[in-house]
Design a protein that fits this description.
The complex is a heterodimer of chains A (243) and B (736). Chain A is of the alpha+beta class. Chain A is built from seven helices and twelve strands. The N and C termini of chain B lie far apart (73 Å). The chains are: A alpha+beta (243), B alpha/beta (736).
Amino acid sequence: MARYAMVIDLDKCVGCQACSVACSEEWEVPIGEARTHIRSTGIEGTFPQLMSVFHVAQCNQCDHPPCVLPCPTGATYQTESGIVKVDQSLCIGCGYCVEACPYDARYINERSKKVDKCDFCSSRLERGLQPACVNTCTAHAKFFGDLEDRGSFVFSAVYEKHARRMENSMAAPGPNVYYLGKAAHLELVQARFGPRAPRLTQPGEVWKKLVKPLVLAAVGVTFIGQAIAFFYQLHTGEKDFEE
Amino acid sequence: MSEKLTRRDFVKLTSLAAALGAGTKQADAAQNPTGWIDGQRVERIATNCEMCFWRCGTIAEVANGKLLRVAGNPDHPLTKGRLCARGNAGAELLYDPDRLKYPQVRTGVRGEGKFQEVSWEQALDLFAQRLTEFKEKYGPESVAFFPHGVASSFFGTLMKAYGTPNSAEPAFAQCRGPREVAYALTFGEGLGSPEPVDLEESKLIILIGSHIGENVFTSQVTAFAEGLSKGAKLIVVDPRFSTAAAKADYWLPIRPGTDTALLLAWINVLVAEGIYDKPYIEKYASGFAELAAHVREFTPEWAESITEIPARTIRDTARAMGDAKPAVALHPGRHVTWYGNDTQRERAMAILTALNGSWGRKGGIFLPTPIKAGKFTLPPFPESKRGRADGAGTRFPLASEEQGVTNGLIEATLSGKPYPIKAWVIYGQNVLESIPQQEKTLKAMEQLEFIAVVDILPMNQVNYADLVLPEASYLERFDTPAIVSSAKQPYIAIRQAAVEPMYDTKPGWWITKQMANRLGLQAYFPWDNPDQYLETVIKPLGIDASVLRVRGAVAFPGRPYIEDRTPEDGPLFPTESGKIELYSPMLKELGFDPLPRYTAPAEIPAGYLRLIYGRSPVHSFARTQNNARLDSLMAENEVWVNTRTAKNMGFTEAQRVVLENQQGATSLPVLIRLTEGIRLDCAYMVHGFGHSSPRLHLAYHKGASDTQLMTHVEVDPIMGGTGMRVNFVRVLKENA
């Protein structure tokens, strides 16, 4: 079975945003949202001793994805090749997975009201294509492949060049997006954009966020029904009653 | 080998090469042809991009006549499937609700933006009638033409046939002009576009003001990143800590305007230490003795006091060139009209390139391989007795007559000298944002009897037009194919319509032919439709139109290095002497310095910062700010000011400020970015923002326009270019 991974060479990346736009166009991401984000560390240091690095953030397709468990409907799941996907037909847009993701890689699509995120362009992979971002990358800094394939670039980057992944004491879910670059640059990126602690939803919050609105909606529907019946009766009921 | 090859073999060879190309890495087109995806039939149309002018290969995906998206074309020999943010956002240009939709005639006053919709029939009749009147009343030279972009080649033919020699585009006098002239003076030919810099094979890349990464031309970024990845060292000369500077081995934050001093000192070290490419110079160059004597006094110590770059760094970087030669890619730059002495600075760069032995060498500057496309037999163009009005070839002796001097045409319009200009025809050129001294341009426009604008979006100059012709976008039209010789593999690439033109827009070729019919100039357009046009152009290339239409591009074997050249390529250095002219007899004859000299820029007035400017990877010039996707990534520009400088001025946090230049011109409110990444004496902003056309609903009044602050220019006497980094700004509180 394949074990898919992506490697991003930060020495090459120029932060041009081509990957982000290609991704957004491929997946019809609403304007203003993105599955792939380019961030800059900003310019660090004092003139003229300076440092600045770009970081490319997207779903890491974690080995132990913190987003799967909180999903109340089972819409978020992991495939055998390690890709974490969202079944749009099951997603109710509750957003628990969005909170749980330590990389903030998920968003709720304003059009569909469902959760969306990178899935390594799964449907393109099925058609024998590379992910859209990898194809378009102007700096040829993004690489996609199978870690089971010893001849692949990703294999050599991960096991020979020791590409790093973004993990820390807050979260270490086994991400499958790796980064190459100078040690100092990777340190800075890690410090700035490393994962946060997953915000796991408590049972009480499930009530507040999901069940409560449903109950309220049900109550509301019942109330409106009763109101309609009441007014209907006001107009016609008396007559009926008389009969 | 190429002598014995018949055309048939050649076709076989090239199609084999193409097939091999398709089999490697990114075989998108082969694996993902037109077909059914998710229940809909998706057509994949190969064309090329015009979000900027680099013309990267694209695939437009279309279903039911609607464009789904634009992606890179893996079969394109230069860009190989890669495409920048702007290229990927092509669909948002096509579906921009602010597009010009119908021909319009002005009803309000100029600039007000009030128009009445008319039919194409009415619009073209009016246009032809006016052009005929001007020809009869004032002569055809009274009509000036301001083109931009490839579609304008059809219109260029029309204007030449009509009889006006007055055509000018900012690509010369506001952009690449100085470098084309300087390299042609030195090596016998200019660089062309895309510039043939062998970044991916280089051992040492030198960028002087070029900010590759922020300035994105897809294939150039790919080559740059590949070169660095393969171990090339990088020297970046820039007052600002650019994306490229962040990757550099040597960042030289030079005092702006002093680059020629640095270049002369580098030349001094190469000569003094004897680390230039001696055999190459002996074999190919003339004027070395004069050069050596000339640079003797320009030591690194001399340059240190001018440039603020330590002499030791200058020596170290010069020695890095000595070590890496001839694989030194000294990028000639693109927008190089900075201080008015730009041709001389570019000459110093050309000379340095020669000393490194890098012209025609792997890892340096590679050579173009011409391909012979078919041409139409046209009647001769009428010759103007009155000559050009822009000064090309006269006042500016080495200005290009092909590209013209925009500012020269504006001056002529204002002064009526050498003769009156009465009308402008503007084709896709943003005359207000791309040419400095906006006030002059506006004043000139007010004097005109007639302005016609052909464009896609209601840019500000559209509001000043008497007649507006809405063109179909590059995704809806056929254009003259890209025939590119300055690539390692020269190629021809097609632009064809992916979808039908929206609204009542028309392609440039159609508009031109309609006008030719009305003006009795049909003989200059001996073709009926794009198919016929294409057949003629590709005939001598021995390729099939259907192959070109499906693949988008066809490449031919290149001869990029000196050792590859054949007699059919002509002389290696087509200068008058047949050698690299380190010392330029032509400049001497014209009364200019035959060897470059440093001239000091004007001092920065107290309390002011020098205004410098550049590009963002997600926007092209002032063209893309209304694109919804790109707007969402960068809606406005910021002005970079060094943290310490800002503190002295009373700014300690990001806020909106107003910039005021030395002549009192002010900007729109713009965010100040406090950063360590810039020298203390400069302010930097990305060009192209602060649009003043309210009809651009997304871009209107977002950020500030650098052009508005360029009320002063220093004109290059050699070629007429406008030096634009000669303005100074103060930073004021927004409501001060």
